[in-house]
Amino acid sequence: MGRTRAWAEHTAWGAVAMLAGLDADWLGATQTSRLRQSLRELTEVDELLTRTRDRAQVHTFEAHRAALPQLRQVVALSNTRTLGLTDAVDASRDGYLAASDLDNVSRDLSLRADPAGPVTLRVTGFDFEQVRALVDTSVVAALDAATSTDPRVRGVGHRVLAESLEAYR
Question: Could you tell me the CA-to-CA distances from 114 to 29, 73, 79, 108, 111 in Å, in that order?
Fold first, then answer.
């Protein structure tokens, strides 16, 4: 068996939309049909995670606590409450940011790249208005949760994604 290829960014966001029961009107008819078929054939959450990994590039940063409220204003935060999880109350932030804004935000808020940093920015070049609409869905929250370092959160993400795939079939 060969390696599973990730979908292109716009296709990955299309899969998110479809699993969330929304239209992916940025995809053509043929691409939509192929993606529907692929989603129906997916049975493993890990394969879905691999396929959708290029929806955004993950960057981690260290940030001063004074920057955290400002970050909340500029990033689209996953809605973990849709998974039955509470929002983080510590100094961590995890959200989506338009690729065109990364340099300005990191400079203006004095973010410092740090692989173990508490700030995770999922940077995407896809139409950010579409991203904002999709980030509020349980599918995006589950995709993000399924890659968490916290085993409990990761388990919740896997369970929700498995349920989403099953419901889509």
Answer: 42, 21, 24, 17, 9
pLDDT, one tens digit for every residue, the chain (169 residues): 456 799 999 999 999 999 999 999 999 999 999 999 999 999 899 999 999 999 999 999 999 888 888 888 899 988 788 888 775 555 678 899 999 999 999 999 999 999 988 899 999 999 999 999 999 999 999 999 998 888 888 999 999 999 999 999 8
Question: Which backbone phi and psi does 61 adopt, to 5 degrees?
Answer: -140, 160
For residues 115 and 61, is the Cβ–Cβ distance under 8 A? no
Sketch the domain layout of the chain as residue ranges.
56-148
